[in-house]
Design brief:
With 185 residues, the protein is of the alpha+beta class. It has five helices and eight strands, in the order H-E-E-H-H-E-E-H-E-E-H-E-E. Helix 1 runs antiparallel to helix 3 and helix 1 runs parallel beside helix 4.
Length: 185
C-alpha cells in the first residue's frame, strides 16, 4: 500500500503549484464512529471545473513539464482499497481534499510524516498540522519553527564572524626569523 505521508507530500505539492501560502492538514480519529478523516486544505487559486472533473483520472496533470499526474489518482485508489471515500471541493480560493476511512480497517502505513511536513515547509508553505484523537489533539505549525530557525542561523552567522575575528586577534603571534626581525602571523 502507498504510504499516507508520501500522498500528503504529493498533495501538498499540488497546493504549492496552485500558489497556496498555507496548507492545513488534519488527521482526526473518531473511535465512536469508527472513522479516520484526513483533510488537506489550502488557500491556493482553486481548480477550474474541467480540472476538478478530471482530478482523479490516472495521468491527468496541470503541472508544466510534468507527465506523471498520479498523486490524486493513487491517493484515491489507496483510500478506496481500504473501504474509504475521497471528497474534493474547491471554491474561488482554495481547495479541500478529504479522505474518510474506517478506523479499524487495514490502513496503509503513515510513513515518515515529519519529513513530508518539513519538505512542504521547505517549499515555502506555511504548514499547519493537527492530529485529533477523541478529546485530545496535537497541533504543529511549521512556518513558525522555520522562521525561528532562520533567525537562529542568522544570529549564529554573526556570532561565527565575531568568533573568527576574535580568534584571529588571539592567535596572531610574533614570529622571529633567523635575522632577528619580527613579523605578525
Amino acid at each position: 500500500m502507498h504510504e499516507l505521508s508520501l500522498s500528503l507530500l504529493d498533495l501538498g505539492e499540488n497546493s504549492f503549484y496552485a500558489e497556496a501560502t498555507t496548507v492545513w492538514i488534519t488527521v482526526a480519529e473518531d473511535v465512536r464512529r469508527n472513522r479516520l478523516t484526513i483533510t488537506l486544505r489550502d488557500d491556493g487559486k482553486g481548480m477550474p471545473p474541467y480540472v476538478l472533473a478530471n482530478a482523479f483520472s490516472e495521468g491527468f496533470t496541470t503541472r508544466p513539464n510534468e507527465s506523471c499526474g498520479m498523486g490524486l489518482y493513487l491517493f484515491s485508489q489507496t483510500v478506496q482499497s481500504c473501504g474509504g471515500r475521497v471528497i474534493l471541493s474547491c471554491g474561488t480560493s482554495g481547495t479541500t481534499l478529504q479522505a474518510i476511512l474506517p478506523l479499524y480497517a487495514p490502513l496503509p502505513p503513515i510513513g515518515n510524516l515529519e519529513s513530508s511536513l518539513a519538505l512542504l515547509s521547505e517549499r515555502g508553505l506555511h504548514v499547519c498540522y493537527r492530529h485529533i484523537c477523541g478529546e485530545n489533539s496535537l497541533s504543529l505549525t511549521l512556518q513558525k519553527h522555520r522562521e525561528r530557525l532562520a533567525d537562529a542561523l542568522k544570529q549564529t552567522e554573526g556570532l561565527n564572524k565575531k568568533i573568527a575575528a576574535l580568534g584571529s586577534a588571539l592567535f596572531t603571534t610574533d614570529v622571529r626569523n633567523t635575522h632577528g626581525s619580527t613579523r605578525k602571523e
